[in-house]
Amino acid sequence: MKVGFLGPRATFTHLAVQAFFGEKIEEVAYSTIPQCIDAVAEGKVDYAVVPTENALEGSVNLTIDYLIHEQPLNIVGEIVSPIEQHLMVHPENTGKWENITRVFSHSHAIAQCHKFLHHTFNGITYDYATSTGAAAQYVSNHPDEAVAAIANELAAKEYGLEIVKENIHDYQYNHTRFAILHPAKKEYNSPLLSPDREKSTLMITLPSDQSGALHQVLSAFTWRKLNLSKIESRPMKTGLGNYFFIIDIDMRIDEVLIPGAIAELEALGCGVKLLGSYEAYSIKKSIKK
Ligand SMILES: O=C(O)C(=O)C[C@]1(C(=O)O)C=C[C@@H](O)C=C1
């Protein structure tokens, strides 16, 4: 079985893949989220794993938008993983790490460490990489540059870097959610982890110019006692003020309640699409070697 992920090796996404699928898979690293999503849509890999949301920085908009606007796929599972960010430099620069002039990492990783960066290197340049692993790889290949990467412990080992400051994320509770994607509505259960929640994700568009539409949408869930764990709006990209909503329900699709809510929403003139009904898993410990 082939599993695609946001690479290169030792990104947080790669670590989530290893914790969820174990070793009996063929890992295929892609350098961007759209490449990874395209690969599973085109059948080059069986599943794709991509980040969707971070506890400090919010949604990974590139993932959400690409799934909604470009490649409709099913979410067949979810992994939540603790995230520990470290500052690392090439070993030749260990003694002079405080003199770095650039920090390189994924935009979400830099955002998770803003307070640390502001206080430690006020005015430093941020360079954005496609992933934390790609940033670590770059620093490893450029010992002559005064640049540090923000990445995880495994990336430091993989790319031969020296961690000079550990745990630089600004808030202790730092977790990222990853979606497992597949073209069919097919369930995939981890051979290694036990699921701890069941979920369904819906995409909802509201009828235009109808007062109280969002209130009516929410009440379709409320009176059925369907607990919502997330509601988020994203632009439709068709005009200012046009939004769709992503809603997570704390339960798998059943035969009565969720189909009833969907029918009620459709009767109100909403567009409704089930993006997935799946098991959610969490990795309990921080990821080490
Ligand atoms: O760059 C990585 O290592 C990733 O797996 C991506 C990503 C993200 O997109 O949020 C995943 C987890 C961390 O929150 C930081 C970056």
What does this structure look like?
With 289 residues, this protein is an alpha/beta fold. The chain folds into three domains: 2-82 and 174-183, 3-Layer(aba) Sandwich (D-Maltodextrin-Binding Protein, domain 2), CATH 3.40.190; 86-165, D-Maltodextrin-Binding Protein, domain 2 (3-Layer(aba) Sandwich), CATH 3.40.190.10; 197-280, 2-Layer Sandwich (Alpha-Beta Plaits), CATH 3.30.70.260. The chain is 27% helix and 33% strand. It is built from nine helices and 15 strands. The protein has helices spanning 12-21, 33-41, 61-69, 107-112, 114-120, 132-141, 153-158, 213-222, 257-267, and strands at residues 2-6, 26-30, 47-54, 58-59, 74-82, 86-89, 102-106, 125-129, 147-151, 162-165, 175-182, 197-205, 228-235, 243-249, 271-282. The strands form two sheets. Strands 1, 2, 3, 4, 5, 11, 12, 13, 14 and 15 form a ten-stranded mixed beta sheet that branches. A hairpin with a 3-residue loop joins strand 3 and strand 4 (58-59). The two termini are 23 Å apart. 40% of the residues are buried. The mean pLDDT is 94. The protein binds prephenic acid. It catalyses: prephenate + H(+) = 3-phenylpyruvate + CO2 + H2O. InterPro entries: ACT-like_dom_sf (IPR045865), ACT_dom (IPR002912), Chor_mutase/pphenate_deHydtase (IPR008242), Preph_deHydtase (IPR001086), Preph_deHydtase_CS (IPR018528). Pfam families: PDT. One of its GO terms (biological process) is L-phenylalanine biosynthetic process. Pathway: Amino-acid biosynthesis; L-phenylalanine biosynthesis; phenylpyruvate from prephenate: step 1/1.
